[in-house]
Design goal:
The protein is an alpha+beta fold. Helix content is about 15%, strand content about 30%. It has a domain at about 1-15 and about 90-139: 2,3-Dihydroxybiphenyl 1,2-Dioxygenase, domain 1, CATH 3.10.180.10. It holds the Pfam family Glyoxalase_6.
């Protein structure tokens, strides 16, 4: 961590882990069964969010939950993990109260702002971690 990181800066909270896939409903059904989690309202073939039981509030996580979601990709290619032409396909959304306030600490830790910023309303901003994986700060 950088010496310039403010200890008073808001810390992100892991909010949503999203897996790319060819059919969000099908993959969410598999993980829903495996984990015993339920799909949230609004599930469709393009995007599904699974929530842990009781909203994920536990003694270890009294402030809430981290959910797992599935996003359909039109030209899906199966990962070739651990390497190859199509390695793992995942990104993380990290929830913060204020993206602008949280950004300096993320950049000081070694992230870069991604050149592609698809948010039309500023509700999220895309970054790249030191290894090149994209992730988003969301508000």
């Amino acid at each position: 961590m950088s010496d310039t990181t403010s200890s008073n800066a808001p810390k992100p909270r892991l909010d949503l882990i999203i897996l790319d896939c060819p059919d969000a409903l099908a993959l969410s059904r598999f993980y829903g069964e495996v984990l015993g989690w339920e799909a949230e309202d609004g599930a469709d073939r393009d995007f599904v969010t699974l929530a842990p039981p009781q909203g994920g509030i536990t003694p270890d996580n009294p402030d809430g939950r981290t959910a797992l979601a599935f996003q359909r990709i039109e030209d899906w290619v199966e990962p070739t993990w651990p390497g190859g032409a199509h390695p793992q396909q995942i990104h993380l959304d990290l929830s913060v109260p204020d993206i602008d306030a949280a950004e300096p600490a993320v950049l000081a830790a070694g992230a870069r702002v991604h050149e592609h910023q698809p948010s039309k309303d500023g509700g999220f901003r895309v970054y790249v971690d030191p290894a090149g994986h994209p992730f988003c700060l969301i508000s």
